[in-house]
Amino acid sequence: MLVILLKNLADRVGIILILALFLSKIGLFRKLVSKQNINKKDKIYLSIIFGVFGIVGTYTGIPIQGAIANSRVMGVFVGGLLGGPIVGLLSGIIAGGHRVLIDIGGFTSIACGISTLLEGIMAGVLRKRFEKSKYRISFALIFGFLAEVMQMVIILIVAKPFSEALELVRIIGIPMILANGIGIAVFIAITDSVFKEIENEYVYQAQLALKIADKTLAYFRKGYNESTTKDAAKVIQEMTKIEAVAFTDTEKILAHVGIGEDHHLSGSYLQTSLTREALQSNRYIVANTKEEIGCYHENCSLKSAIIVPIREVDKVIGTLKLYKGKENSITKVEIELALGLAQIFSTQIELSKVDYQRELLAKSELKALQSQINPHFLFNAINTIVSLTRTQPDNARRLLIHLGDYFRTNLEQETEDVDLSKEIEHINSYIEIEKARFGDKLEIIYDIPEDISCKIPPLILQPLVENAIKHGVIDKIEGGKVEIIARENENATELIVKDNGVGMDKALVDLLFEENHNKESIGLKNVNERLKNKYGVKYGIKIESELNIGTTATIEIPKH
Q1: What is the pLDDT of residues 57-96, one digit of tens each?
Q2: How far apart are CA 49 and CA 55, in angstroms?
Q3: Sequence-ordered list of residues with C-beta below 8 angstroms from that of 252, at least 6 positions apart, any chain
Q4: Residue 140 and residue 112: Cα distance in Å, rounded?
Q5: How far apart are CA 41 and CA 81, in angstroms?
């Protein structure tokens, strides 16, 4: 009897799981579970959905001795785990209340109604522990078993006469505990698949953000104005499903592309209260309704928005706004996309300042060196930072600061000599970004006495370090180390960059400073020429290298 009942219950549970699988493909449900903050309306929707699952569980149940062996608990319990106490309570009221109403005065109707309600509340209370658990399916399985045990206890306490209740529990107890506990675990596995798909969407959005960055780099390198932002907004709208894209500065709209562009006109003053709030608070804001957006235009079709500040260093200079034409339609994925784009655009705008400052440099030698802002280094740095934004936000922020310091040093350099310590700070910003990319493959050793006193031409040592990393240790599968050494003697300060990388043969070393040799050595050529021009022909870079052993680059800075 128990085996037959268990088999029949498993068939009923299968029906619920098929419905759950179908539900996981429906956009409304996916949006509800992927939203960052579930509001009251969302909780009502979830309560209705999981309450209906409970009702289906009742109707697909098996009549036994005046009661129903059923899978009602599955919908209610999963609803509580996913939606919290309110969803658990409301779905329990819906499913439990239905059970009482279809069998008023029935042998177990009151007991089943009470147990359904309490199981929903129990799941809601467990939600925080469930979300933190590394083993969500096992968690759901164990507590699903316990919830059904609780139902059996309630039947024994409430249903009368006790002898009939005891006989009923003897028949249905084990089958319902096993079938529904396993069913709850599988239901959670199905919903977890939704989250995994959404995670994959995050990866896609990160890649999309980089593609957008690649296409918009040329625009923002020309500055942050009406022309460049309009071109960038068109790129974003074309490459995403966003219905409107806008940029503002702190006072007016710079560009608006998509729905609403008939009254959100470029050059006009800010028209939404939410934009002003984002600018003042220096934080991103999500609006789920037209009223929250706060547009004065009566027929405005903008219903949802994510508004993200755009910064130049630590100063807010405007906002990026992504709009949709339906309420409650901004998902976590779109929030991450907007945040990623805003970070990238902020960096690109900072780079536009680099370009502007570069034009102002008077000395052609330093100008030539500063013009070598390697786009691959920039995109690799941005890619690394984007990948850390969600998992290691503090580390991502630290790397952004280093990236800003790196480019700020490039654009602020004067033609006068600088302290060695300042050059080392600049090198350290570069190294921190490279270490984040290559991890244990890259080891940096500083051997610089604290009391050393030396002034050097700006940006004279960093190209040597970059060359050692790019063409030395990183080309080795196992990586390697770079040593930055400073030594003082009577007449000069010796600066050495030494690596244990792949090395070079003598023929290649002899060609490094040839005029028509590999363009990748332009940084070394520039440094070599600047040293010779400043201190004399004997003060160029001295390079010693051996294949599979490493390379040592040495420069001397005379004291007099």
Answers
A1: 999 988 988 888 899 999 999 999 988 899 999 999 999 9
A2: 10
A3: 267, 268, 269, 270
A4: 21
A5: 18
Partnered with residue 312 across adjacent β-strands are 315
Rounded to two decimals, the pTM is: 0.45
Higher pLDDT, residue 122 or 275: 122
Residue 331 has a pLDDT of 79
| Helix, strand and coil percent figures for the chain, each rounded to 5 | 60, 15, 25
pLDDT digits (tens, 9 = 90+) for 165-183: 999 999 999 999 999 999 9
φ, ψ of residue 205 in degrees (nearest 5)? -65, -35
Positive or negative CA dihedral for 256, 262, 264, 267?
positive
Number of helices (H), then strands (E), belonging to the chain: the values are 20, 14
Cβ–Cβ contacts within 10 Å for residue 65, how many?
Answer: 13
Of 52, 61, 48, 50, nearest to 106 by C-alpha is 61
CA dist., res. 405 & res. 412, Å (int): 10
- Measured N-to-C along each axis, helices 393-412 and 375-389 cross at an angle, to the nearest 10 degrees, of 160
**Tokens describing residue 260:** 């609403």
Q: What is the DSSP letter of 261?
A: T
- Statement: residue 127 has pLDDT above 50: yes
The backbone torsions φ and ψ at residue 374, rounded to the nearest 5 degrees and listed phi first, read -70, 115
pLDDT tens readout for residues 201-227: 667 777 777 788 788 877 877 778 898
Find all residues with CB under 8 Å of 74, minimum gap 6, and list them.
13, 16, 53, 54, 57, 180, 183, 184, 187
318: its two tokens: 């405007």
pLDDT at 153: 94
- As a whole number of angstroms, the distance between CA 539 and CA 560 comes to 13
Burial of residue 555 (number of CB atoms within 10 Å: 0-12, 13-18, 19+): buried
Question: Is residue 189 classed as helix, strand or coil in its secondary structure?
Answer: helix
Region of 123 on the Ramachandran plot (φ > 0 left; ψ -120 to 50 alpha; else beta): alpha
Residue-level length of the chain: 560
**What pLDDT digit, counting tens, does each position of 409-425 carry?**
665 655 568 889 888 88
3-state secondary structure of 266: coil
